[in-house]
Amino acid sequence: MPSGPRGGAAIDAAIDERDAVGFVAVCRGDGPTGRYLTGRRLDTDFVFVRAAGETHLRVPSTVDIPVVADAASVRTDDRPAGKAAAAVLAASASESEGTVLASRTIPHDAALHLESAGYDLASTAAVRDARAVKDETERETIESTQRAAKRAVARAAEILARSNVADEADGMGPDGVLVWDGAPLSAERLRRQVNARLAVEGVDAAGETTVRAGSRSESAERGGGVERDRSERDEGGGPKDDSAVELIAGEPIVVSVAPRGPGGYRGALARTFVVESGGGWERRAHVACDAARDVTLVEADPGASAGFLGSEIRAETGAFGFSMDGEVTRDVGGGIGLSAREAPTLDGDTELAAGNVLRVRAAVTHAEHGRVELTDVLVVGADGPQMVVDAPTGLDPRQW
After folding, report:
1. Residue 220 region, left (φ>0) first, then alpha (ψ -120 to 50), else beta?
2. What CATH number is given for 8-131 in this structure?
3. Peptide bond preceding 32: is omega within 30 degrees of 0, i.e. cis?
4. 202 Cβ partners below 8 Å, 6+ apart?
5. Which intervals carry biased composition (Basic and acidic residues) (predicted)?
6. Is the pLDDT of residue 159 over 80?
7. What is the pLDDT of residue 258?
8. What is the architecture of the domain spanning 136-399?
9. How far is CA 2 from CA 5, 31, 148, 240, 356, in A?
10. Where in the chain is the domain with CATH 3.40.350.10?
11. Domain with CATH 3.90.230.10 in the chain
12. How far apart are the C-alpha atoms of 36 and 91, rounded to whole Å?
């Protein structure tokens, strides 16, 4: 984990700009906001208060008082979060009333307690915007996670490259089924091997590893993220358990990982493989996705419009004859860090800034042919964009 809390300067700037008395956040100990603000994962919910340039934390008495670097005070307080925060503000802020900044997600009861204590609540995006720009240490941490992601996808490529194609006469399965290590290779077997490699690399699969086989399945992922399941449902019908789906030669197989490193920072990588590809639809779809991937290395400059980048990814994919409404993915990515999805989003009029780290995704889905997808993590550098980790993009798993 990058050392020390983050966001203090940005919060102080927002407080000064709004002439506020302080900032309050009610955090989950294992949530990304809490990890960002404290520099560590806490095993409890807590109240975070920033006032007069100092940080104060309040935790329940049921836990040991944690050590948090640079915090002026860390104490127990079993009162409701809003009352605990109001008490800290009364003791630490220069004024006993006025505007208090908070994120839009502050619990309703906490907001009511602060208002009843005489404070006017105003929302701020200071923490969200600060998290969108990663410093050098954060970028190095993301790169480490992304390297683990690459090695996990490489494991899938290795297995696919070593697989044989079954002939019904040999008793290993129906014609065309891939056979590995003496048995038909299913999406679930491949997913487990990918997750095993992630574990060896010291990162958490985070319930986000998916193997999508041809047009016969949505994903072999169990217990995956709600956001990911929703995006798949929007583009291809309801997700279903395809853990027993056997992989077949000539069909596109999408292997996607989004692991979480030891410090909480995420990676994201997806590649599409075809064993004994005959060309045709998947080849054209792959060329489209690869071209869209290249667009990100041209358009993701500091000062460029994030929304324009997103539209260019979609437009370049569609330029190869795919429907923008029914085939080209709408989820082309956005910021990545302590969350798999954070600011900036690739829509609207937000400008990209040096230090933004983006998950960039190009994908095409067809009801009969299946899906082709390429996903990478890109950093917006002062001198231009570059992939955090470069990985082969070809359909042939032997290229790895």
Report:
1. alpha
2. 3.40.350.10
3. no
4. 148, 261, 262
5. 218-243
6. yes
7. 98
8. Alpha-Beta Complex (3.90)
9. 8, 16, 18, 38, 16
10. 8-131
11. 136-399
12. 25
